[in-house]
């Protein structure tokens, strides 16, 4: 057998798992030359949450990032994570969008496309694999690994055969939740190797503490490539340390041949820049056996922590982890990887904060009715009925979801031109807008300002300001500013007090003070996507009046009474849980 090969994850999955994908390109470039000299099989540098985070939080152009990294590391194939027919977004896209995305990604610098479907619905890999082969790049088809009553070794082997028949160049076993046990890895790799003649690549997170042993047994079973992360960016919710795997196999038939001294230099560099991102760090730094039950992937853990902090509910994470188990079962045992990890995880958060299934996100409903593809098991029938009713559908779909979506790229390009007011728009910007329409427009407006900075700054002087109380629906609302941070303090008639940190004050006191009817409050923190009525319009009870985005999912806000509506927020505003959004009287 030839030497074992290594894929390095430090530029994508490692920092996605450890600190919510916040690493800036400017912290990647200085070490790029040394990374390029190691001799990795590939370096994963793009895809996954990278694209979303770049435009949502970092004010970086993700297309520019991959071009910069490809130029800085010309000898090493650049690898990305590609969500099948969902590309990098949270819905199924038309075939023309998938094909153009692959073409542009290859032109910009992607060499290896790791393509997966969150439901393991092979139909969602047909077009992406063909598109990658067409542009002459490496098409790696990934099996999203999970454990459930309906997932078996035989099923995974059958899936690998399907991928091989589609033209995949290699097969990845993608263990995103660190559930793959060492001996199970050995048996699964052996079974797939007996069935097909393609290289096997193994990806396993360290969250449960099993990953090093899992990778060793996978290599012994015949896996040709292993995913690792440089030691200073490894373990916890990340991956096995690159140096450890290299040294474990040194002098054996699996010897990687990689230079440990060069790897240690790279580790020193990332150790020096990691403190800049401390505020985004996941608290899961060791091994957590609870994940064996909750099945939450590494990247999802850090994202859940961040999102619960935004909802002022980080202390409820243990409840969310337990609820996650129930939601996964109710939704038909989908493997938890983007976008299903976000869909299931966010629904679990809403179930804990708002009551079980009192609010289904748009994405949850679409998953339940088949708009993402075929779930491994039948979802809960009552939830399916609820979703069908809300979506005004007669029955779930059973075809490849993209078969129901006509080509959409040209129309979306026209729409973007209208929004930006220009005669032309770059195709890469069109694709950015396709995948993240609400976030993209704001990014385009601010792109010229350049990336954000996470360097430490001098803290502002301490001060506390308290606004005049604003009476609304029997409550008194104060805006309290402590150390330049706004808090919305609601004092109710019975004397209870609710305090919520505010990103921005999206309403004005004059609007709130003039409200005499029923106040519609935000159930969670988020952003206003769309106001569905005009001020002064009549609404009926249970009519949807506002769409918000919370934790990357879409949520409907319904009227709880009939009357005329007056909005207290504008489209695009950041909102906090409990904030007044509209008045109905």
Write up what this structure looks like.
- The chain is α/β, with parallel strands linked by helices.
- The protein contains 21 helices and 21 strands.
- The strands form four sheets. Strands 1-2-3-4-5-6-7-8 form an eight-stranded parallel beta barrel, surrounded by five helices. Strands 9, 10, 11, 12 and 13 form a five-stranded antiparallel beta sheet that branches. It has a four-stranded antiparallel beta sheet with strand order 14-21-19-16, with no helix packed on it.
- Helix 5 packs across helix 19 (427-435).
- Residues 457-461, 470-474, 492-498 and 501-515 have low confidence and may be disordered.
**Biggest β-sheet strands, sense, barrel:** 8 strands, parallel, barrel
Helix/strand class: alpha/beta
Number of strands: 21
Number of helical segments?
21
Q: What low-confidence regions span 5 or more consecutive residues with pLDDT below 50?
A: 457-461, 470-474, 492-498, 501-515
Average pLDDT, rounded to a whole number, is: 88
* Fraction of residues in H or I helices: 25-40%
Short description:
The protein is of the alpha/beta class. Helices cover 38% and strands 18% of the residues.
Task: Summarize the SSE layout with pairings.
Elements: E1 5-8, H1 13-19, H2 29-38, E2 42-47, H3 50-58, H4 62-72, E3 78-82, H5 95-108, E4 112-115, H6 126-134, E5 138-144, H7 153-166, E6 170-175, H8 182-195, E7 200-204, H9 211-221, E8 225-228, H10 242-249, H11 260-273, H12 291-294, H13 298-310, H14 317-330, H15 340-354, H16 362-368, H17 381-391, H18 409-420, H19 427-435, H20 437-446, E9 464-466, E10 470-472, E11 475-482, E12 485-491, E13 497-502, H21 509-513, E14 518-521, E15 526-531, E16 538-539, E17 544-550, E18 553-558, E19 563-567, E20 574-575, E21 580-584
Parallel strand pairs: 1-2, 1-8, 2-3, 3-4, 4-5, 5-6, 6-7, 7-8
Antiparallel strand pairs: 9-11, 10-11, 11-12, 12-13, 14-21, 15-17, 15-20, 16-19, 17-18, 19-21
Helix pairs in contact: 1-13, 2-11, 5-6, 5-19, 7-8, 8-9, 14-15, 16-17, 18-19, 19-20
């Amino acid at each position: 057998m030839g030497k074992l090969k290594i894929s390095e994850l430090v530029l994508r999955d490692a920092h996605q798992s450890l600190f919510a994908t916040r690493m800036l390109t400017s912290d990647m470039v200085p070490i790029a030359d040394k990374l390029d000299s190691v001799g990795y099989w590939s370096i994963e540098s793009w895809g996954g949450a990278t694209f979303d985070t770049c435009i949502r939080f970092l004010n970086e152009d993700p297309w520019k990032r991959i071009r910069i990294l490809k130029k800085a590391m010309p000898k090493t194939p650049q690898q990305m994570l590609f969500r099948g027919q969902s590309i990098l977004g949270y819905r199924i896209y038309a075939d023309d969008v998938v094909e153009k995305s692959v073409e542009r990604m290859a032109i910009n610098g992607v060499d290896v496309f790791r393509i997966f479907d969150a439901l393991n619905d092979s139909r969602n890999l047909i077009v992406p694999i063909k598109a990658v082969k067409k542009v002459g790049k490496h098409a790696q088809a990934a099996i999203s690994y999970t454990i459930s009553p309906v997932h078996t070794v035989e099923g995974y082997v059958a899936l690998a055969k399907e991928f091989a028949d589609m033209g995949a160049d290699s097969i990845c076993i993608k263990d995103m939740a660190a559930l793959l046990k060492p001996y199970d890895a050995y048996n699964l790799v052996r079974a797939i190797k007996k069935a097909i003649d393609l290289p096997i690549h193994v990806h396993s997170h360290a969250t449960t503490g099993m990953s090093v042993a899992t990778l060793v047994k996978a290599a012994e079973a015949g896996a040709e490539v292993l995913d690792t992360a440089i030691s200073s960016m490894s373990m916890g919710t990340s991956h096995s340390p690159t140096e450890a795997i290299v040294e474990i196999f040194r002098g054996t038939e699996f010897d990687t041949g990689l230079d440990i001294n060069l790897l240690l230099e790279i580790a020193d560099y990332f150790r020096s820049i990691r403190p800049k991102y401390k505020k985004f760090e996941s608290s899961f730094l060791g091994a957590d056996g609870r994940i064996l039950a909750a099945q939450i992937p590494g990247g999802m853990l850090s994202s859940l922590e961040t999102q619960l902090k935004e909802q002022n509910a980080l202390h409820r994470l243990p409840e969310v982890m337990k609820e996650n188990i129930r939601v996964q079962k109710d939704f038909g045992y989908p493997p938890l990887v983007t976008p299903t990890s976000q869909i299931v995880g966010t629904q679990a958060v809403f179930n804990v904060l708002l009551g079980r299934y009192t609010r289904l996100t748009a994405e949850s409903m679409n998953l339940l009715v088949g708009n993402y593809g075929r779930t491994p098991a039948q979802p809960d029938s009552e939830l399916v009925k609820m979703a069908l009713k809300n979506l005004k559908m007669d029955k779930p779909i059973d075809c490849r979801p993209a078969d129901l979506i006509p080509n959409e790229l040209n129309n979306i390009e026209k729409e973007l031109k209208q929004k930006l007011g220009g005669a032309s728009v770059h195709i890469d910007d069109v694709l950015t807008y396709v995948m993240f329409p609400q976030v993209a427009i704001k990014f385009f407006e601010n792109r010229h300002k350049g990336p954000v900075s996470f360097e430490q700054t001098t803290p502002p002087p301490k001060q506390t300001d308290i606004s005049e109380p604003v009476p609304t629906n029997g409550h008194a609302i104060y805006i309290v500013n402590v150390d330049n941070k706004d808090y919305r303090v609601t004092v109710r008639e019975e004397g209870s007090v609710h305090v919520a940190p505010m990103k921005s004050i999206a309403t004005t006191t004059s609007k709130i003070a003039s409200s005499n009817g029923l106040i519609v409050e935000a159930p969670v923190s988020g952003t206003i996507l769309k106001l569905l009525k005009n001020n002064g319009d009549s609404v009926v009870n249970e009519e949807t009046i506002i769409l918000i985005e919370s934790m990357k999912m879409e949520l409907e806000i319904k009227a709880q009474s009939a009357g005329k509506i007056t909005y207290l927020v504008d489209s695009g505003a950041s909102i906090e849980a409990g904030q007044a959004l509209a008045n109905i009287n």
